[in-house]
């Protein structure tokens, strides 16, 4: 086999591979020799088939198998021999001329094909000891735990009908129908809907106009849908709601005691407080982790500068762009609404893709150097978490992952990355800072533009934080007044 490098430009490589016809024929004859004692052909006893006849009958099919095996297996062997790693699956190209292909199968012409790929660049691991991050820690007071319990306990509140006027905290049972320009709109009508005033569940301004009403009252309420409302046909529009109050109910007093805990399925108030405190610690701890990781990656990004494989960047960009396009389509907005243009947005998101690819390669290299491994138990837990998201489809999900190496890699990658981040946090300087929950939740100026090099206005900065550093997009607030009381449990 002869391997000739025909292109070496930056990270791009192209190789011409030539396997002489005589070598291909030798391998073909070897395989025929191996099976000749087992071949059954009418008119010949087993093991007595003339070799020339076997070659005539099966030579081309055996040669075709050899070509497929070489195309599938030889590229990785060639790259390994060159000490190179391909960023993506190498592209293989061979002749499309039928006459030439027939000659190859007949061992009358050399097998030639080309490999096109990009190498993963050599990455020199930098000393991370100079990196310094601040870990914001929230100390959770007992009052915060009790406040959260009271929110959770809203589902256990018992309401009693009253004759007086509705006040904040009361539950109003009503019928309503919404209209824009006098025309009813989809999703704007409900009967016997229940709403706790002051809960913030409905469109801003809606609940406030119910205060003071009593059973039997009717009122037309005028509100304006938020400009960012998901339904484009309603966003920013003024609407009226014809409301008929059926009942007003006052809430019973909530006390944090064993009785309340039992109603919530917990054995005692003490245990309830322990559980809620643990949930808050996990919630705040997750946010703390995201912000620390973001600081770490920002400074890692400053340490490393190298050419990134364009095919990886293209794939990453396409993934980001699909999500952005879906978000815009669902919101009914345009790039102009986000104070940018499509051309500028593409440029900015490509920079984001380059950053993600570069940091991914760096973390991968560090992980390999320090011997990070993802255990079978960790993979099983990740798979189980995926299965839980699709109740009733467990078999289909398992089968999908069984047949999709890429999907399995997608489960492994974040686990691997978090382990590398843990390692790095053990090397860098970490300073703890006690903050309030409001301070922890607030986006500081650095977070508002996570990457100075890739900070398209508004949305791109948010995407940078979400995509590169593991944040989850905040759920959009429901604005249409159509949720039932059963949906109004504390979130």
From TrEMBL:
Residues 169-270 form the PPIase FKBP-type domain. InterPro entries: PPIase_dom_sf, PPIase_FKBP_dom, Trig_fac, Trigger_fac_C, Trigger_fac_C_sf, Trigger_fac_ribosome-bd_bac, Trigger_fac_ribosome-bd_sf, Trigger_fact/SurA_dom_sf. Its EC number is 5.2.1.8. One of its GO terms (biological process) is protein unfolding. This is Trigger factor. The keyword Cell cycle applies. It comes from Rhizobium setariae. Consists of 3 domains; the N-terminus binds the ribosome, the middle domain has PPIase activity, while the C-terminus has intrinsic chaperone activity on its own. Belongs to the FKBP-type PPIase family. Tig subfamily. One of its GO terms (cellular component) is cytoplasm. It comes from the Bacteria. GO terms for molecular function: peptidyl-prolyl cis-trans isomerase activity; protein folding chaperone; ribosome binding. It catalyses: [protein]-peptidylproline (omega=180) = [protein]-peptidylproline (omega=0).
């Amino acid at each position: 086999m002869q391997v000739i490098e025909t292109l070496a430009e930056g990270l791009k490589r192209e190789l011409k591979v030539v396997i002489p016809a005589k070598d291909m024929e030798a391998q073909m004859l070897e395989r025929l020799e191996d099976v000749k004692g087992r071949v059954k052909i009418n008119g010949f006893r087993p093991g007595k088939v003339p070799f020339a006849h076997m070659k005539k009958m099966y030579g081309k099919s055996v040669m075709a198998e050899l070509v497929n095996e070489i195309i599938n297996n030889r590229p990785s062997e060639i790259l390994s021999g060159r000490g190179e790693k391909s960023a993506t699956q190498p592209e293989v190209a061979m002749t499309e001329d039928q006459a030439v292909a027939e000659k190859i199968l007949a061992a009358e012409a050399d097998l030639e094909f080309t490999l096109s790929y990009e190498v993963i660049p050599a990455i020199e691991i930098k000393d991370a000891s100079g990196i310094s991050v601040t870990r914001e820690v929230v100390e959770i007071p007992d009052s915060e735990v009790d406040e959260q319990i009271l929110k959770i306990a809203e589902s256990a509140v018992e309401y009693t009908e009253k004759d007086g006027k509705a006040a904040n905290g009361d539950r109003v049972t009503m019928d309503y129908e919404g209209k824009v320009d006098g025309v009813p709109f989809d999703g704007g009508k409900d009967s016997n809907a229940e709403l706790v005033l002051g809960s913030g569940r409905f469109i801003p301004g809606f609940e406030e106009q119910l205060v003071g009403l009593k059973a039997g009252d009717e009122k037309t309420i005028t509100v304006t849908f938020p400009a960012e409302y998901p339904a484009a046909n309603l966003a920013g529009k003024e609407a009226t709601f014809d409301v008929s109050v059926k009942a007003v109910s006052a809430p019973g007093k909530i006390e944090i005691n064993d009785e309340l805990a039992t109603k919530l399925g917990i054995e005692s108030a003490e245990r309830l407080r322990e559980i809620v405190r643990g949930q808050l610690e996990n919630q705040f701890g997750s946010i703390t982790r995201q912000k620390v990781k973001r600081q770490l990656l920002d400074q890692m990004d400053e340490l490393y500068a190298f050419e990134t494989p364009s095919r990886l960047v293209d794939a990453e960009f396409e993934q980001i762009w699909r999500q952005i396009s879906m978000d815009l389509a669902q919101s009914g907005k345009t790039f102009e609404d986000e104070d940018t243009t499509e051309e500028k947005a593409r440029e900015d998101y490509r920079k984001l893709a380059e950053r993600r690819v570069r940091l991914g390669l760096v973390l991968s290299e560090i992980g390999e150097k320090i011997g990070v491994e993802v255990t079978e138990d960790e993979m099983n837990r990740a798979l189980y978490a995926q299965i839980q998201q699709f109740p009733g489809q467990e078999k289909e999900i398992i089968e999908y992952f069984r047949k999709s190496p890429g999907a399995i890699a997608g489960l492994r990658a974040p686990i691997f990355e978090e382990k590398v981040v843990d390692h790095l946090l053990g090397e860098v300087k970490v300073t703890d800072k006690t903050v309030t929950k409001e301070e922890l939740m607030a986006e500081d100026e650095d977070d508002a533009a996570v990457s100075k090099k890739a900070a398209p206005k508004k949305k791109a900065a948010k995407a940078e934080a979400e995509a590169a550093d593991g944040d989850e997009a905040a759920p959009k607030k429901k604005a249409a007044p159509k949720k039932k009381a059963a949906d109004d449990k504390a979130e």
